[in-house]
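re: ur question from earlier - yeah i can do the single chain one, its not a big deal. heres the input i used so u can compare w yours
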Amino acid sequence: MKFSYYLRLIEEDYLNRYSSKMTFSKLLISYITDINFRVTVRFRIQSYFNSKSKKLKIFAVFIRNGNIKKYGVEIGINTKIDGGVNLHHVNGIVIGDGVVIGRRANIFQQVTIGKKNNAYPYIGNDVTIYPGSKIIGDINIGNNVTVGANSVVNKSVVDNMVVVGIPASEINNKRQVVRI
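and the output i got, formated as tokens:
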């Protein structure tokens, strides 16, 4: 893919995080001052190099290894994350090599998204995954899903749901109004 594609993804990531028009100076300041955004940009560059020739793929490995060593976040070389991702408190985030994540995902610290039986999860659009959660195996997480803190998700979740617990279970359909 062309670098312009990855630049568009970076712009979507920026807009989802800061909600203001991206300029080069704003992008540079955000990259320098916001570790979470910096990891996201480095992931986009990693993905760009991974999409190129075998000679350039080594740079993707260097970037991934740098993110692990410096920031404590591991995002697989072949991971696919659509635009608008927002990584919060990047410490301890692990996203496996074959994971696919849709648009506008919010992922908090200590989240693991990984494989079970050689299969990775597919995560839809507008999903929020709170701290400490684990999502594993050949499952689908629908659109507009919230995964509660420290939950373990090992079964597919339909759209518009809130799931919590170990193992995770549905507690709310987001289309309904819940009164407390």
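The chain has four helices and 15 strands. not sure if urs matches, ping me
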